[in-house]
């Protein structure tokens, strides 16, 4: 079990407000950020900016989608409960609450053999436990990101990251998580969270991130005060 790191909404909002001057001319649309006055498009841009500051593009995306007001508080409670269950049940994962989302980071070395996208038997069990929790909290969507270090060619690392993200997604689907909830993306070596000049840095960069965020049904339930727990 790993300790859940909490990135509080007040700090998230401060970061977003601090970065808005960089995106003043951007067009916004209605969506996840409307409670905080931030549209989906601007939220994605802010997520990229915040990601460059925090070292995680996934974290930045979740912060860019922060939802304000009472609805955001209800979603926050929903995500708190889900994050706690993941933290208590899924071994080998770092669980982080970000905005109204959840970031789950797996060390690729714990999921796969070297240069392989085939999940080990132990990691399959942990993905099964993650799937059971996602099925319980069904009003969320999931993005699975694959990342590598800089060892090897860019093209091979890109392909490996895509294959690893899809391996995790395929197993989640096999354990009953609806495919419509899941998106995958591979970033290869392009989005490190640490220096590739050290062994420890490379280890941190070899990872799979699972980003969990509210879907439209959950947002509507929160806005109307009818959120089902």
Automatic annotation (TrEMBL):
Isomerase is among the record's keywords: no
Domain OmpA-like, residue spans: 98-216
Cellular localisation: Cell outer membrane
Gene3D superfamilies noted in UniProt: OmpA-like domain
Keyword terms of this UniProt record: Cell outer membrane, Membrane, Signal
CC annotations in GO: cell outer membrane
Annotated signal sequence range: 1-25
Main location: membrane
Protein name: OmpA/MotB domain protein
Lineage, highest ranks first: Bacteria, Pseudomonadati, Chlorobiota, Chlorobiia, Chlorobiales
